[in-house]
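hey
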């Protein structure tokens, strides 16, 4: 069947596509290019769910071996709320590979939005992913290529071009071009006053110097021209604010300025027939402004900072934007592209791929995202499948366990500035999220739990970007304790930095041994599984479970996750609790 799709044969049969898409063995062991070619054609409930599960981490499947793919797919099935499919995927036999010994009991699904269709493939032959990506177009498989600033779709069997989607992206720099009253012009800020200057594109003649716009200018270094309802405008930024001019009248339209924040990027979108500007800020805010009045009409905030890249996208006929930001702590660019809806302003997805350049192309109700001229992702307003449980709204950074009202619970912290409790048996939230009532950024970096007179407390470490501090929470009451009301037995110290592990068993230091092949530990924990002491060490997406019984530690199991593992704990019953990306998962030894 998959060869039929690739070769242009009888690949358009949805029934056959449903059958193979819902086959766990096919999903785990088949070439990812062949599987992706089937996904768009699946139409039945089981096939559509399997397609959504595969797409959730499709970008990782191309470089993963079947054993890693089996683990990732099992976790993603649990993130979609299908425990049975998760078990069936974990049970797939792979020749020459040991059976999977860990099964997913439950997982949250914050990052598997129904509209996220996922990774399609690479447009760059040097990346080694040829043949080109395949999608379904009008019930037939078609390939996607890149040519002349567009994404042509060609019938897989005949090679005939059946559709063409123009690529659009935000082109900003120290100068830009526009057409004013039929005359091509260039605009730059190269003059001695630093204000935008309009020059004839052919002769270089100076036509006008635009007046200052509010506080903006001089030294506007980032310029972009846009055409709205046939009329040219100029947007210019100086890393503090964004100014808008009408190039026909050469008069200012207005200025966009965010209180206490710097505007670093923008995109122009159309909302309900009216143009709007969406901006990204230093502190991670995404704000929507009416283009005509320059009034702010909406604002949202994620966990990223320094949103220096933004591009407009249309998904299902509605405006969205894509942003690329930096880690809030160390300032390095993130390997992720966030997808934001404009109305309401909220982050709805996170594409696990970094980019210095993002372009989009719309074909029907689908939006194709091209990152760095090479890889293609697809977004669509797909119908919901599965039963996803919400998790955190940003990266999970800390996990622990305790007992509350007689039942074991997980206590988790995140960059979303919340502390959350979960029933360890079911994965259901226990009470509302706990958060501090402050105006500062209060991302949780660590959490420890303790019992005082049988009452559970949590101590959290926070990092505002300027200093670190601790908070204490009464988990029974669901509230923070003031500094002067901390129990006397409560230790204020949170211990050493958990990014540099120092593990020991019976006085034997084992940190150098347990670091793993990736060389960068992102989380670790020790505990007991089936009566044997273990160390669980995560290095980015890969996890090793070390058996510490003998004189020399031995790797008992290796696991792989869809996103980087940022936190891990071993529960009293020997389960493993993981925080990966913004989601959680509990695994049990089978």
């Amino acid at each position: 069947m998959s060869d039929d799709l690739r070769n242009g044969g009888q690949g358009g049969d949805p029934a056959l596509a449903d059958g193979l898409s819902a086959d766990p063995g096919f999903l785990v062991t088949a070439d990812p290019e062949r599987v992706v070619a089937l996904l768009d054609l699946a139409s039945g409930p089981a096939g559509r769910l399997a397609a959504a599960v595969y797409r959730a981490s499709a970008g990782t499947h191309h470089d993963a071996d079947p054993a890693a793919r089996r683990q990732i797919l099992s976790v993603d099935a649990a993130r979609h709320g299908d425990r049975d499919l998760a078990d069936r995927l974990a049970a797939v036999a792979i020749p020459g590979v040991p059976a999977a010994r860990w099964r997913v009991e439950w997982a949250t699904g914050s990052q598997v939005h129904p509209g996220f269709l996922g990774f399609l493939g690479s447009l760059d032959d040097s990346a080694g992913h040829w043949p080109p990506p395949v999608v379904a177009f009008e019930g037939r498989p078609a390939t996607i290529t890149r040519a002349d600033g567009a994404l042509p779709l060609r019938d897989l069997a005949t090679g005939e071009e059946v559709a063409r989607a123009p690529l659009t992206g935000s082109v900003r720099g120290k100068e830009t071009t526009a057409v004013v009253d039929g005359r091509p012009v260039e605009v730059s800020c190269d003059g001695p006053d630093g204000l935008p200057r309009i020059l004839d594109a052919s002769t270089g003649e100076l036509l006008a110097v635009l007046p200052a716009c509010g506080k903006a200018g001089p030294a506007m270094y980032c310029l972009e021209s846009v055409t709205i309802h046939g009329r040219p405008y100029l947007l210019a930024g100086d890393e503090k604010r964004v100014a808008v001019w009408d190039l026909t009248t050469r008069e200012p339209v207005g200025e966009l300025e965010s209180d206490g924040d710097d505007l670093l990027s923008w995109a122009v979108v159309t909302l309900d027939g009216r143009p709007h500007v969406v901006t990204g800020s230093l502190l991670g805010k995404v704000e929507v402004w009416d283009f005509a009045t320059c009034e702010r009409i909406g604002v949202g905030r994620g966990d990223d900072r320094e949103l220096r890249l933004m591009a407009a996208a249309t998904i299902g006929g509605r405006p969205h934007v894509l942003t690329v930001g930096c880690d809030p702590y160390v300032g390095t660019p993130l390997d992720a592209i966030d997808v934001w809806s404009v109305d309401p302003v909220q982050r709805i997805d996170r594409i696990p791929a970094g980019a210095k350049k993002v372009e989009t192309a719309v074909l029907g109700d689908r939006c194709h995202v091209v990152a760095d001229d090479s890889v293609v992702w697809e977004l669509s307003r797909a119908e919901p499948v599965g039963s996803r449980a919400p998790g955190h709204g940003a990266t999970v950074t800390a996990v622990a366990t305790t007992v509350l009202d007689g039942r074991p619970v997980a206590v988790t912290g995140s960059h979303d500035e919340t502390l959350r409790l979960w029933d360890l048996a079911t994965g259901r939230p226990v009470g509302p999220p706990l958060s501090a009532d402050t105006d500062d950024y209060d991302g949780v970096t660590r959490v420890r739990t303790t019992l005082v007179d049988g009452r559970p407390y949590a101590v959290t470490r926070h990092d505002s970007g300027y200093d670190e501090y601790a908070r204490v929470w009464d988990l029974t009451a669901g509230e923070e304790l003031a500094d002067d009301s901390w129990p006397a037995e409560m230790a204020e110290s949170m211990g050493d930095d958990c990014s540099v592990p120092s593990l020991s068993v019976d006085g034997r230091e084992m940190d150098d041994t347990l670091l793993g092949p990736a060389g960068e530990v992102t989380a670790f924990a020790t505990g007991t599984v089936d009566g044997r002491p273990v160390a669980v060490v995560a290095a980015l997406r890969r996890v090793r479970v070390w058996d510490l019984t003998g004189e020399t530690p031995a790797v008992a199991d290796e696991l792989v996750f869809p996103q980087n593992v940022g936190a891990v704990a071993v529960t009293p019953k020997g389960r493993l609790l993981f925080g990966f990306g913004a989601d959680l998962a509990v695994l049990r030894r089978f």
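The chain is about 10% helix and 45% strand. The first helix runs from residue 2 to 7.
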